[in-house]
Structures are given as C-alpha cells and as structure tokens.
C-alpha cells in the first residue's frame, strides 16, 4: 500500500487538493501497478514560518 505525503504551504482549496489526490493516485496506480483503493495521499500544511530554504525562513523571503 503506497502512501504519498505532500507537504505544502496552506492556502490550497478543497478542489485543488481533490485534483492533486486524483492525479497522484492515477500516477501511482499506473507506474507502481497498485489499486486506487490501496493508495493513500496525505496532505500536510506547513506554515511559511516553519519552512526554511537555504537557511532562510520562507516567511522572510515571501513577504
């Protein structure tokens, strides 16, 4: 049973997450030869102040 974890900044709509889950599941089923009902997609929203790139908090870069 594949589990795909997606971490991203907050702000995506329910519809965007649903579309992501659908296409990611389709890709996993096609490439890994699994079944949709055995594929789990987990979304975790991480605040910009909790995310750093190159040693700089993203909240400081994206103001």
Topology:
Layout: E1 3-8, H1 14-32, E2 40-45, E3 52-53, E4 56-57, H2 58-61
Parallel strand pairs: 1-2
Antiparallel strand pairs: 3-4
Can you offer a commentary on this structure?
The protein starts with a strand and ends with a helix. The protein has a single domain (3-61), classed as Macrophage Migration Inhibitory Factor (2-Layer Sandwich), CATH 3.30.429. The radius of gyration is 15 Å and the shape is elongated. It has two helices and four strands. The model has no long low-confidence stretch (mean pLDDT 94). The strands form two sheets. The chain has a two-stranded parallel ribbon. It has a two-stranded antiparallel ribbon with strand order 3-4. Helices cover 37% and strands 25% of the residues. The longest helix has 19 residues, at 14-32. With 63 residues, the chain is of the alpha+beta class.
Question: What is this structure, in a nutshell?
Answer:
Helix content is 37%, strand content 25%. With 63 residues, the chain is of the alpha+beta class. The model has no long low-confidence stretch (mean pLDDT 94).
Instruction: Indicate the proportion of strand residues.
Output: 25-35%
Terminal CA distance: 40 Å
Question: Tell me about the biggest sheet?
Answer: 2 strands, parallel
Number of helices: 2
CATH class equals: Alpha Beta
Structural classification: alpha+beta
Q: Order of SSEs, N→C?
A: EHEEEH
Could you estimate the helical fraction of the residues in percent? 25-40%
Adjacency order of strands in the biggest sheet: 1-2
Using only C-alpha atoms, the radius of gyration works out to 15 Å
Mean pLDDT: 94
Fourth CATH level, the homologous superfamily: Macrophage Migration Inhibitory Factor
Give unreliable regions as ranges. none
Structural domain count: 1
């Amino acid at each position: 049973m594949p589990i795909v974890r997606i971490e991203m900044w907050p702000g995506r709509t329910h519809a965007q997450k649903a579309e992501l889950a659908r296409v990611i599941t389709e890709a996993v089923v096609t490439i890994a030869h699994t079944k949709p009902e055995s594929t789990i997609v987990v979304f975790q929203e991480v605040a910009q102040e909790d995310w750093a790139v190159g040693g700089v908090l993203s909240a400081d870069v994206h103001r």
